[in-house]
Amino acid sequence: MNVSLLNTLEKPLLRGRFHEAAGYISLGACLMLLDLCPTSKVFFAVLVYSISLVGLFVVSAIYHRIQWQEKARALMRRIDHSAIFALIAGTMTPVFYLTLPEETRLNAIMLIWSVALIGMAQSIFWIGAPKWLAALLYVGAGWLGYPFLGEMSKVMGSGGVVLVLTGGILYTVGAVIYAVKRPNPWPKAFGYHEIFHIFVAAAAACHFILIKQLLLLNL
To answer: Are 77 and 94 a contacting pair, CB within 8 Å?
Structure first.
């Protein structure tokens, strides 16, 4: 049996559909965010976020919807997994820039991108790493901003903190589901991976709302 047919049999019916829809939605939403940017530096920070957000959903949809041959599938898997780390750092770039003091923000941004690059290197060069290890790296990188939360809360307020934590919790739960492959309700149509994708999209929505609110505060 060839690889393409194996991929077809393995993929649930809805595999990649949720991120395909999220890709279209995020493109329009990010264009709106860019229009709200008050300065060129803020625009650049939000542009980094926008590319990472839209890029994640587009890459995920392409990877999961198309039946790839073995070598192409391995390449797309590397890109797909790397995009998760890019989104983590990309999301925190405008959040750090808009909430941290000038003397802190650059170090925080460099820290999150350094960790993200380590995660991306793992995704590229150790694609066969156990799911639990990949999930642990995702969660660790995602919660890296927690030590800065007290400082950030002075700008974003309690509502912003709730959005940060809710998004982080959703990402974490999604990562656990990805690692343990449970629940897996309807494997042929809607399995654990689809649930993971929904949690990722919901978490990304929380952080999108946060960034929009921060931009409105700066108008």
So the answer is: no
Count CA within 13 A, CB hemisphere, residue 153: 11
Question: Which two structure tokens, joined as six digits, stand for 173?
Answer: 């739960």
Range of the domain at 187: 3-217
Measure the CA–CA gap between 142 and 57, rounded to whole angstroms: 17
Q: Do the beta carbons of residue 144 and residue 117 sit within 8 Å?
A: no
**What's 177's domain CATH number?**
1.20.1070
Give the Cα separation of 205 and 171 in Å (integer).
Answer: 11
Count of structural domains within the chain = 1
Task: Cite the DSSP H helix spans in 126-148.
Answer: 131-142
Q: Report in angstroms the alpha-carbon separations of 82 from 3, 6, 42, 91, 184.
A: 23, 24, 25, 14, 24
pLDDT of the chain, 219 residues: tens digit per residue:
344 444 445 688 889 899 999 999 999 999 999 999 999 999 999 999 999 999 999 999 999 999 999 999 999 999 999 999 999 999 999 999 999 999 999 999 999 999 999 999 999 998 888 878 888 888 889 899 999 999 999 999 999 999 999 999 999 999 999 989 999 999 999 999 999 999 999 999 999 999 999 999 987
Distance, CA of 104 to chain centre: 24
Beta bridge partner(s), residue 186? 190
Task: Return d(Cα 175, Cα 135) in angstroms, integer.
Answer: 5
Instruction: Give the whole-angstrom CA distance, residue 89 versus residue 83.
Output: 10
Collapsing DSSP to helix, strand or coil, 119 comes out as: helix
CA 204 to chain centre: 6
